Amino acid sequence: MEPLLAVFSGYSLKGEHVEKPEELAPFVQDALDEIEYVIGDAATKWGGERVKDGHPAPFPLRYVEVGNEDFYDRTQSYEARFAQFYDAIKAKYPQLQIIATRGVSSRKPDVVDQHLYRSPRSLALDATHFDKANRNGPKIMVGEWASLDGKPTPTLQAALGDAAWMTGLERNSDVVVMSCYAPLLVNVNPGASQWGTNLIGYDALNSFSSPSYYAQKMFAENKGDVWLPMDLQLPSGDKMPAPTGQAGVGSFGSPVEFKDISIQPGGGAETQPDLQKSTGGFQLSGGKWTATEGVLSQPSVETNTRAIAKGVPWGDGVITLKARKLSGTEGFRIFFHYLDSSLFGSWTVGGWKNTKAGIAVGRGGAADLGSRTDVTLETGRWYNLRVELVGRHVRCFLDGKLMNEADEPPQEPAALIATASRVNETGEVILKAVNFSDRPVSGAVAVKGARVTGGRAILLTGDPSAQNTLENPEKVVPHESSLPAPVGSDSFSHEFPAHSVTVLRLSTR
Does an H or E element contain 163, and which? Predict the structure, then answer.
C-alpha cells in the first residue's frame, strides 16, 4: 500500500469546469505546491512548511492523479486540462507517474483510472476484463470498484463477485498496477450512511469486517511472485441455463418514440403496456420519458436512456413494436433479457451515426454479437421491429427483414473462476478459486512439473445472503484447515463448496 495524490483538475461533478488555460493556471500552480509540500526538501517553500509542521522527511510519492471521474465531462475539456497539468508536473517532477481519469490523446498518461460498480454476477462474468488489455498502452488503476449487494456492508454474494473480479486483477497485474475497493468505512447507525455497500462497518464503540473484507484479506495475504498458467476444464456454456430477463426500449443521443409494444413470453400471455397516460409499467433510467395516447416518447438527446418493462423475468418469446427517431444522429434500442444495467441484451437500429444495426450484450462489459448490418433510418418514419428469442438464439427483424442474429453468452459465471501463482522463495503454489454457483465443484487439481508434499486450505463460504453485523461480527469468516494431499503426488482431488472462495497453499518439491 502506498499514497496517491489526487489534484483538482478544474472540473466538478456538477458539470462546472474551467475552460481557458489562463484561468486554469492557478489550479495547476496549486497542484505543484501540493506536490512540493509532499516531497520537497527543507530548502523549498512548501517542503519547509512540511518540516515546520513536524514531518522532516518527504513522504513517499510515485503517482499523481489529475482530476476525478472526468469521463462525466460532456464538454470534452479534459483533453486540454490534462495536457496543461501533465506538462507542468512532468517539467518539474519527471519522476512522477501521471494518472488520467479517462482516456486521452493529447498526452500519453502513465496510468488510466477506471471505476466500476456492478452486481456480483456482473463482476464475476467480467473476471477476464483485462485479459486482452493493451500491453503497450498506459497502465491501469481500478481506483474505485465493488460488487453492490448488501446494505450497509456487503453480503457473501458480494464477496464472491469481488473475489472473482480479483482473480482477473491478479492475473493481469503486469498492466493493472493498482486497485482500491470503495468505500472503505461506514457508520452503521440509522441514517448515518450515504453509500449502499461499504467494506467495514462501525459505530461509536465497535467495528466489524464484512465478507468482502475477508475476501480481500485472503487475496492480500496469499500472493505469489509469478503468475502460473492454468487449464480449467469446466462444463461448456451450452449446459448453463438459457438467458432470462425483461424487455425494454431506449435511445442514445436522439429523441425517439415507440408504440404498439407487445411482449409475448413463450408459453405465457401477451402483455401490452398501457401507454395512454402513464409510464408506470416501466422502470425508467435517463431521458424524459412520457406516455400519451399510446405513444411512449423520449424527447431528450441524453445518451443511454432506458425504459424497461416491469414484471417477472422470462426467456423464450417475441417482442414486437413500432419505433421512430424524431431527430439527431442516432436511432433506437430494443432491450431483451434485461436483468440490470450491466447484464442485458440489446439490438441497436440506426446506431453508429445512423449507419448500422447490431446486437450487443452486457456481461459486466458490453460486447457486440455477430456482425453489424447497414441501415439508415428516415427521420419521422415508423418502423416495425421484431425480436425473436429461443434459448440463447436471437433473431432481429426490421420491417419483416431479418437484419441480425446471434447466440447470447451465458448469464451465469463459469462453474469455477480461478488464478494461480508461485512463491519464488518457498516454491509454494497458490491457487485461488471462486465457486459462484449453488452447486459444489469437485475435481482433480494437478500441478505440472512439481510434486505436492502438503498444504493448507483457507475457505470462505456460507449463505450467499449472509452479512456480518455489530451483533454477529463473525457470521461469515474464513476457516483454515490442513490439506489432505497425498505426499509426493502431482495431483489430488478437491471439492470447492457452493458459494465459496478458496485459497489453496500447496507445498511442492
Answer: helix 156-171
d(CA 167, CA 161): 10
Taking the C-alpha atoms of residue 316 and residue 160, their distance in angstroms, rounded to an integer, is 29
Residue 240 domain flag: no
Q: Give all strands of the β-sheet with 200-202 in edge-to-edge order.
A: 185-187, 200-202, 207-209
Q: Are residues 418 and 403 in the same domain?
A: no
Backbone angles phi, psi at 91, to 5 degrees: -65, -40
Helices 78-92 and 21-39 meet at what angle, rounded to 10? Answer: 40
* Structural domain contains residue 496: yes
Contact in structure between 384 and 398 (CB atoms under 8 Å): yes
| 278's grid cell | 402513464
CB 364 within 8 A of CB 122: yes
First and final CA of the chain: distance in angstroms? 32
Mean pLDDT value across residues 289-318: 94
Q: How confident is the model at residue 257 (pLDDT cuts 50, 70, 90)?
A: very high
Domain that holds residue 486: 413-508
**Residues in contact with 106: Cβ distance below 8 Å, sequence separation at least 6, in sequence order:** 79, 80, 82, 83
Q: Is the pLDDT of residue 487 over 70?
A: no
pTM value is 0.83
Residue 238's pLDDT is 47
Axis-axis angle for helices 45-52, 21-39 (nearest 10): 50
10 neighbors 16 (Cβ within 8 angstroms) = no
355, 434: one domain? no
Answer whether 174's CB lies under 8 Å from 135's CB: yes
